[in-house]
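Hey, resending since the last one bounced:
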Amino acid sequence: MNEIKQRKGFETRSYKLDANSEFVEVEYNSIKDKLKYKIHLTEVGNEIQYEADNVIVGKIFVGITSIITLICIGVYFLGNPEKPGTYVANAIIWGAISIFGFLKPHKDDILIVNGNKLIRLFRKKPNEEKVMEFANNLIKIANDKKKEVLINFDLNEEQFMGNVQWLLNMKLIDKAELEELKSEYKLKQLI
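The structure tokens again:
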């Protein structure tokens, strides 16, 4: 999976990975922002994290404000209030708060971190399985690209050893691969 398009409320996110390219194309649209940019694959992280708001309190508050709005409307139309304007004003105020609560997007994101650029995906848009498939595929391709760039046998020994040590520290290779690369480098230098 090399592309994902997501929409949540008034916010859209689109990530496209061209197999022949070295970039992830990002498009982000919200009420106030419209961004389009590219992230180089070597700047993409290799770790997935989760970030969410604690929405229980917010849902309870929106529920209470909605009930207050319905009560005010009910009393205005079905009761015989002494001051009907008070009930209309309360219904408008509490209704506006309820609508804002429904429209405000809450954070429920998957983050790709441990790189120079952060990639933020909606966790459940279109569904969690597709999001995780895209995230894991992106990490794999980015890690392969980092290895391709950093494992260069034409570098001097200090630079090469620094590169492969960095790959080990980032957990892109293990100790066995590190030793294999060091041996291969020394062999190529003899030839």
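The beta strands are 3-8, 11-17, 23-29, 34-40, 47-52, 108-113, 119-122.

Sorry for the duplicate.
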